[in-house]
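Need residues for this backbone.
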């Protein structure tokens, strides 16, 4: 299970806990030490693992527990020779994206220590960091040139003086699309500090990867960012041509590939001839398969589609020209590998689900491993012996007793096999019926994973059983399983949820009179949909839910994902599909007390959706209902809460 606890959900938990109709008696104080809402926030996350060129050092990012309004991120370093781990950056703000200089003597990284996020360089032994980029704009990403003399970075143009004056005068009129500043490719020469833009302002650049020769960069780019479509293509931006031993500046941009659907994570092999990326088998909805392209060839080879058929989370080129990747496999993750020719080869299974990972030229692998009862830690694996844990960043969690999930499968209404996880309270006698909370993951192209899920652990600590179904449309079960809820939200996926609930009732685990449902994003949608279809749930929590799929499409950031499921809501023949799957059309049926949570700053699912649901529930209720907005419940995540009873 892979969802961390949103701060606003603590309020939801208090609502559940206060309702004796649902919860059974919690374990005695003399029993195991149970997780508390306060303690659940003290979880460190590990990401972005980067080996130095000699493989003796590993830089990585640690996201700290929330303090005040933010969760700080800092860079740490593991020293292979001594086996020690130390914090490398200590600013009051955050640092991320550690990248070693090609000679391993310096580390460049991103930091917002000066308000805007900029590129900084620091000696690998420590000391003061110096800013490489400047300006009133934030850098989104960067990469060292192979010779270490330049850094390419992605950033929009800085604000002009007239724009700053408008902002100062509170003149906030903005012409959408025309006045948007797109992310451009820039190049800074480290000796002089001179930075220049390489791409035109109309282009939006989302990835930039140096060719090993240093002659240019491979880009993911689009010249139609305003379309909100998947118009990105892969280009090669050539910086130099070498003729007769003379290096000549060129600065030309040539299209290499036009993949269908979204794609990401472009990486070039050391031979400079092959390139890999994660792309779509057909057109979406999200990147799924590992694709291989060769210089001079227009087509691509799908390495993982037929042989693995699981979503690729991340991958690395190995020194011998092969590929190592992490894929999602149901609730778990695993490493897979491909030979230089692209054939799948065996990789020893790893018990600790690998998440973020890095690989050295010697073949050593470092990864962040986790499970539903053990938080993330760093592991080192030589691909010969068993991996060994090398960090203890979350040792404070060893004092708490967590419920271990039962992973199992059940048959849905049409015979489709659904995998699920079930948490039970510690000390459960196996005989009594438990109050059950069904938690639905986000997405829908998401999945619960074998990692600590604090909302469910807190519920289990208070006597609830918690049901986590990976219903049709979830990732981790193959492309066809993902496609099964295309144009059918609230149909087969909802029936999968109810079949799982019925199964637990039939098995004598769930009390049919003490059922609740909750979730975030698509999980919030499913919670709202469920209470319009049945009165079996005694309470519901909808976090960032989607009550109206038409207005969701028109107001969210990046609606092309939703378009894959339903098309465009502005086409008359498509309207019925959007409406029939929208909970707000059926809100007159709701009898369930419902808590609606929404983030004030959420640009994907706007607060208006929560207000829309609350207003509709209040208007349709047979008795006066309480409806309120509590803004900024916690400064760290700024949630809004609506309660309709």
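Answer:
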């Amino acid at each position: 299970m892979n969802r961390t606890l949103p701060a606003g959900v603590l309020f939801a938990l208090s609502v559940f806990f206060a309702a004796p109709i649902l919860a059974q008696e919690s374990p005695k104080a003399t029993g195991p030490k149970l997780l508390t809402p306060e303690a659940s926030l003290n979880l460190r996350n590990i990401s972005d693992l980067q080996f130095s060129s000699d493989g003796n050092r590993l830089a990585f990012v640690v996201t700290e527990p929330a303090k005040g309004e933010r969760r700080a991120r800092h860079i740490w370093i593991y020293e292979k020779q001594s086996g020690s781990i130390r914090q490398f950056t200590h600013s009051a703000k955050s640092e991320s994206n550690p990248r070693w200089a090609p000679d391993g003597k310096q580390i460049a990284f991103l930091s917002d220590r000066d308000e805007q996020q900029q590129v900084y360089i620091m000696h690998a032994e420590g000391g003061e960091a110096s800013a490489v980029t400047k300006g009133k704009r934030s850098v989104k990403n960067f990469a060292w040139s192979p010779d270490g003399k330049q850094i390419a970075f992605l950033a929009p143009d800085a604000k002009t003086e007239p724009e700053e004056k408008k902002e100062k005068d509170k003149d906030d009129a903005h012409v959408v699309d025309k006045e948007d500043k797109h992310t451009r490719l820039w190049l800074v020469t480290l000796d002089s500090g001179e930075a220049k833009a390489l791409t035109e302002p109309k282009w939006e650049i989302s990835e930039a990867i140096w060719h090993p020769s240093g002659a240019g960069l491979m880009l993911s780019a689009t010249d139609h960012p305003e379309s909100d479509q998947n118009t990105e293509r892969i280009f090669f931006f050539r910086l130099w041509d070498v003729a007769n031993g003379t290096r000549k500046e060129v600065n030309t941009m040539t299209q290499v590939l036009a993949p269908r659907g979204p794609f990401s994570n472009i990486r070039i092999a050391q031979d400079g001839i092959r390139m890999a990326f994660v792309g779509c088998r057909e057109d979406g909805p999200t990147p799924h398969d590992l694709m291989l392209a060769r210089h001079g060839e227009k087509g691509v080879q799908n390495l993982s589609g037929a042989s693995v058929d699981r979503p690729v989370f991340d991958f690395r080129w190995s020194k011998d020209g092969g590929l190592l990747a992490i894929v999602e496999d149901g609730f778990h993750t695993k490493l897979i590998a491909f030979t230089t020719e692209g054939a799948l080869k065996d990789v020893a299974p790893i018990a600790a689900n690998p998440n973020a990972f890095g690989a050295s030229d010697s073949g050593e692998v470092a990864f962040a491993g986790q499970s539903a009862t053990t938080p993330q830690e760093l592991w080192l694996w030589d691909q010969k012996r068993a991996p060994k844990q090398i960090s203890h960043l979350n040792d404070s969690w060893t004092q708490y007793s967590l419920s271990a999930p039962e992973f199992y499968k059940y048959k849905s209404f049409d015979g489709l096999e659904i995998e699920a996880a079930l948490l039970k309270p510690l000390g459960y006698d196996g005989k009594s019926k438990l109050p059950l909370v069904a938690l639905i993951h986000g997405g829908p192209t998401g999945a619960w994973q074998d990692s600590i899920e604090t909302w469910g652990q807190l519920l289990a600590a208070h006597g609830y059983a918690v049901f986590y179904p990976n219903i049709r449309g979830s990732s981790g079960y193959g492309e066809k399983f993902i496609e099964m809820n295309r144009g059918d939200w609230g149909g087969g996926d909802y029936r999968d949820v109810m079949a799982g609930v019925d199964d637990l009732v039939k098995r004598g685990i769930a009390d049919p009179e003490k059922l609740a449902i909750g979730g975030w994003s698509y999980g919030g949608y499913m919670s709202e949909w469920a209470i319009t279809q049945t009165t079996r749930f005694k309470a519901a929590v909808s976090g960032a839910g989607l009550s109206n799929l038409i207005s969701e499409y028109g107001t969210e950031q990046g609606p092309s994902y939703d378009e894959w499921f339903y098309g465009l809501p502005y086409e008359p023949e498509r309207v019925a599909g959007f409406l029939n799957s929208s909970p707000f059309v059926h809100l007159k049926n709701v009898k369930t007390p419902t808590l609606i949570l929404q983030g004030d700053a959420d640009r994907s699912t706007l607060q208006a959706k929560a207000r829309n649901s609350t207003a509709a529930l209040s208007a349709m209720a047979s008795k006066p209902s309480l409806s309120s907005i509590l803004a900024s419940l916690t400064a760290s995540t700024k949630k809004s809460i609506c309660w309709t009873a």
